[in-house]
Amino acid sequence: MAFRIWRFAAPQVFYPIAGKMIPWFMAVAAVLAALGLYIGFFVAPTDFQQGEAYRIIFIHVPAAWMSMFIYLVMAFWCAVGLVLNTRLSFMMALALAPTGALMTFIALWTGSLWGRPTWGTWWVWDARLTSELILLFLYIGFLSLHAAIDDVRRADKAASLLALVGAVNVPIIYFSVQWWNTLHQGASVSLTRAPSMATTMLAGMLLMALAAWAYSIAASFMRVRSIILERESDADWVRNLSEVKSP
Amino acid sequence: MTAATSLPVQRAAGGLRSVFLSVVERDLVLALRRRSDVLTTFFFFIIVVSLFPLGVGPEPDTLRTIAPGVVWVAALLASMLALARLFAGDYADGTLEQLALSPQPLLVLALGKILAHWLVTGVPLVLIAPVLGLQFDLPVQALLVMTLGLLLGTPVLSMIGAVGAALTLGVRGAGGLLALLVLPLYIPVLIFGAGAVSASAAGMSVNGHLSLLGAFFLIALVFAPWATATAIRIALE
Amino acid sequence: MIWGSASEFFAMGGYALYVWGSYAVTSVVLAAELWLLARRRRTLLARLGRSLNAARNPSQ
């Protein structure tokens, strides 16, 4: 029974399955986002200290969480690929990276816009934002290294090793930056919400986080399908696909 | 390895230690033949550090504040510049392939190359940094902390950098790409290295900082040679 | 309902630029991602279809 799961490691098997799952994940994302935004804008109360500006949290925190989660998942597939030498693992990692990078960018952008009314500057050197910036560099590094190497197999492996090195470093970097931040500015400058967040705010945030998760899966599945088609274009099963025979 | 066994015998026996030492020796000899490469890194470091007062102004208080960061960032950049040459020469002429094929574990050979690289590019930085620190009017105590920090930190930079250098072997635009890959990984070393100097200048304890730098050194020593060897094998495939 | 009127909602207590700036950029980024993905797939399928046709009908 356990060995049946190996079937899904074949691009040929995974391709149609992923294709069927995409619309479902997009639908889930849309519904959760609608709920989350409704709660976020029409149920959650105004914040005592930050006024309405805090409502950016409903994008900023989910995006930040996803940026880190996607990196971990990406690193996981990189490790699987390096150890088991499965083509699809490398393809999945490559498919996740751009979505992760975009989530990181969104976290940074919204973080900046949140920091401006709250702290008065367009950029705040708080631990999380600074770590997000470094995470963006790690994503870009992964994609750049992969793009720079012509041989696909070597590119996959090199970028995967890099992703793993980065994954090991991310906690170290995060704690270093956090320490640096508290030393230089004191604990007051932080975009982390105070522990006593209204339940409705938390609910909205969690719903948006789940929506972001569903969206990320849909987007990366879409990307991986294109990657599969690109890499396996000589295979018979690709030539026999209905969408190829009659586009 | 008893005291009674002399070095030539150890070498002739072809043990792991002797191979390691011959790799180090070979790289040192090669580096000293191309002295210009070594000196370029050294002078780059000096120039970058000297640029900052010119950009920021000669106000002593400002300079004292920025000095730890400036010296450390310059050390990072100089270290990274030197990395391009770590494996490139051997990769081009096939020596790296020979090293990978040898019966000795590649990670030991890689560590040998890294050590030679650090001796030639890192140590000069460690030695000249306190002199440069004087330009910024840092107190003696802080200069000592800076030297010690760089002594611990520059090997870490070499080790982490070696992984990046191996990953980008023979790749288009390797220099810029290497910077993008490696500089984010340098950040913890920068934070605690520069932090130690600032703390010392402010009269605070540096034990925490230096301990962490020591910890980074040990972690790098454990993981980096292995990761470098893996990256070399990937590049040679 | 927290908002007294639609204009209050859009004003966001004076923080309209920041709040709507965030949501707008996010929407644009995500829409762009989806559009780019769709375009990549379209181009790919067209190219595969063409090469398949050429293989089947070498005279054309």
In total, the number of domains of chain A comes to 1
CA(first)-CA(last) distance of chain C: 67 Å
Unreliable spans of chain C are none
Q: Which two chains form the greatest contact, residue counts included?
A: A-C, 40 and 31 residues
Secondary structural class of chain C:
mainly alpha
**Euclidean distance between termini CA atoms of chain A:** 37 Å
Tell me the number of helical segments of chain C per DSSP (H or I, 4 or more residues long): 2
Give a written overview of the molecule.
The complex is a heterotrimer of chains A (about 250), B (about 240) and C (about 60). Chain A is mostly helical and about 250 residues long. Chain A is built from 8 helices and no strands. Chain A has one domain. In chain A, α1 packs antiparallel against α6. The longest helix of chain A is centred in the last third of the chain and has 34 residues. The radius of gyration of chain A is 20 Å and the shape is globular. Chain B has about 240 residues and is an all-alpha fold. Chain B has 9 helices and no strands. Chain B has one domain. By secondary structure, chain C is mainly α. Chain C has one domain. Chain C contains 2 helices and no strands. The longest helix of chain C has about 40 residues. The model of chain C has no long low-confidence stretch (mean pLDDT about 85).
Keywords:
heterotrimer, B: 237 residues, mainly alpha, 9 helices, 86% helix, 0% strand, elongated, disordered N terminus, C: 60 residues, 2 helices
Secondary-structure map:
The complex is a heterotrimer of chains A (247), B (237) and C (60).
Chain A: H1 11-43, H2 57-84, H3 87-119, H4 127-148, H5 152-185, H6 199-231, H7 236-239, H8 242-245
Chain B: H1 7-12, H2 16-33, H3 35-56, H4 60-93, H5 95-101, H6 106-135, H7 140-167, H8 174-201, H9 207-236
Helix pairs in contact in B: 2-6, 3-4, 3-6, 4-6, 4-7, 4-8, 6-7, 6-9, 7-8, 7-9, 8-9
Chain C: H1 6-11, H2 16-56
